[in-house]
Design brief:
Distance between the termini: 13 Å
Bound molecules: 5-O-phosphono-beta-D-ribofuranosylamine
Radius of gyration: 16 Å
Helix content: 25-40%
CATH superfamily: Formyl transferase, N-terminal domain
Order of helices and strands: EHEHEHEHEHEEHEE
Shape: globular
CATH topology: Rossmann fold
CATH architecture: 3-Layer(aba) Sandwich
Strand order of the largest sheet: 3-2-1-4-5-6-7
Number of strands: 9
Length: 208
């Protein structure tokens, strides 16, 4: 990851939903010692609380909907261009419910991270908490990973575990995962910003 010395790392965050992970990052960035600054928030849909949170915090936003483009490839290239306009050092997908494509990864591969509400490599995809519950695991959690072309398959930066309780529903389990996920995201993005990191094969290491 390229770092500009003595400057907070510039971060673009992409969201699709309620944006509680984004909110945790917004609050962390208020402390100059955190080492990162959110320069823009992007979304793939309108009228979401994630965008409203960014607007309330005075952070510029942009929206690019897949349906407004002829092809998925064109959307991917437009998304890459919209992010590149902010020249971020790190891109954080925080509940962004789309797979980024080859143009995006060509520009940002190795410095785009995503958070997934399961302990990878278990339960990739859109239904991590539901599948963990259905499988009957006693421990699940969340994973922050460096995005690659697969579905939740990239090199793991951090994980946090969450016990499954006997009477959990998908909703109660996902809510508890999200509490742990937000703490992991803030702690890890802060370290990535302050220390830098290196990806070698599947191993991700902080530089400090
Ligand atoms: C998070 O659990 C994320 O991992 C999953 O969707 C949730 C998004 O939550 N993909 P929020 O929009 O940050 O509140």
């Amino acid at each position: 990851m390229r770092r500009v010395p003595d400057e907070p790392a510039s971060v673009v965050v992409l969201v699709s939903g309620s944006g509680t992970n984004l909110q945790a990052l917004i609050e962390a960035c208020r402390d100059p010692a955190f080492g990162a600054r959110i320069v823009a928030v992007g979304a793939d849909r309108d009228d979401i609380e994630g965008l409203a949170r960014a607007e309330r915090a005075g952070i510029p936003t942009f929206t690019l909907k897949v349906g407004d483009f002829e092809t998925r490839e064109e959307w991917d290239a437009a998304l890459a261009g919209a992010v590149a306009a902010w020249d971020p050092e790190l891109v954080v997908l925080a509940g962004f419910m789309k797979l980024v494509g080859p143009v995006f990864l060509g520009l940002y591969g190795g410095r785009v991270v995503n958070t997934h509400p399961a302990l990878s490599p278990s339960f990739p995809g859109m239904h991590g908490p539901e599948e963990a519950l259905a499988y009957g695991v006693k421990v699940t959690g969340a994973t922050l990973f460096v995005v690659d072309p697969g579905v939740d398959t990239g090199p793991i930066v951090a994980q946090t575990s969450v016990p499954v309780e006997d009477y959990d529903t998908v909703e109660t389990l996902h809510e508890r995962i999200k509490v742990a996920e937000r703490a992991m995201l803030v702690e890890t993005v802060g370290r990535m910003a302050r220390e830098g990191f290196t990806v070698e094969g599947r191993r991700v290491r902080f530089n400090a």
